[in-house]
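Appendix B. Chain record.
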Amino acid sequence: MTTAFDPIDLSGKRLTSRVVMAPMTRSRAYGPGAEPTELMATYYAQRAGAGLIVTEGVQPSPVGQGYPDTPGLHTPGQVRAWRTVTDAVHREGGVIFAQLMHTGRIGHPSLLPDGLVPVGPSAVAAEGQVFTHAGPQDFVTPRELSEADIRRTVDDFAAAARNAVAAGFDGVEIHGANGYLIHQFLAPNTNRRTDAWGGGTEGRIRFAVEVVTAVAEAIGSHRVGLRISPGNPYNDISEDGPGEVYAALLNRIAGLDLAYLHLLEGPDRDLTSRLRKAWPGTFVLNPFTHPDATGPEALRLVEDGSADMVAYGALFLANPDLPRRLAAGGPFNSPDPSTFYGGDHRGYTDYPTLTA
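Structure tokens predicted for this chain:
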């Protein structure tokens, strides 16, 4: 029987286990330049015992930033700063992918330089607010991307992927989930276009397909993963019966031989099973455990074949050595929800060893 603690070959890269550190926004790229900091190098190196680390979302362009103090991968300074992080992880024997995240309409002009405003497939504002340095602000109506804008955005993803490799990352994960730009193209309430980038299923999956294809061509498909979250309402997304769209998406990209597909699961386990069967490669599952953090019981998903790898988020924050603790059956530190996402974490410190 395969267990989560068995090694796995990920497109030629040997991983020591099947326990994945899921991407989590930390907002620690303080100061000008949206560059990673020494604190970030320490944070990721402490968690290098994961079979695979996927970083927090990293914007591929200035307009792709949706939260304060999130890092980028579109300037030489950012590439140099990320090298400090990847070197620290590799010294500890870890494998690390950068998650490329363009937030699209999720953001605020105050977070963007040079008079930029958030963009999206259609000029449809999200309900709700985003945290900024001035406090919570209402989402604004995004500028609808033109055909030329879309092409430039695809190129931005490819360029950021090349920068990731230059920065020492082992690969990249394309963020197609959680209501950000790629997800906005997939969802009917955010993509109201009637051109070739919208309308029916083929139009709505086109942007995702072209981004994944461009990134795979830029750095090699063996270095590329994709994250999706069918039916996830986060960031004001509405997808009623998303199975058809995501089955079509997987069908279009299956032949690219990507490193993996990463599913952020919703409550529909049947859809998970269908997508698992439809995907010919490595299948990473971030299981639905709401409102609780994913716990040791999720290890069974590898044992019963539901997934090839299982991703943990919040529990990795409180337990930097989580794979060791999972293998030992605990003890586990309880995550502090106040430190999960966004905000000012300058006073928060990760310690190499935490006691139960």
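Further analysis of this model is presented in Appendix C.
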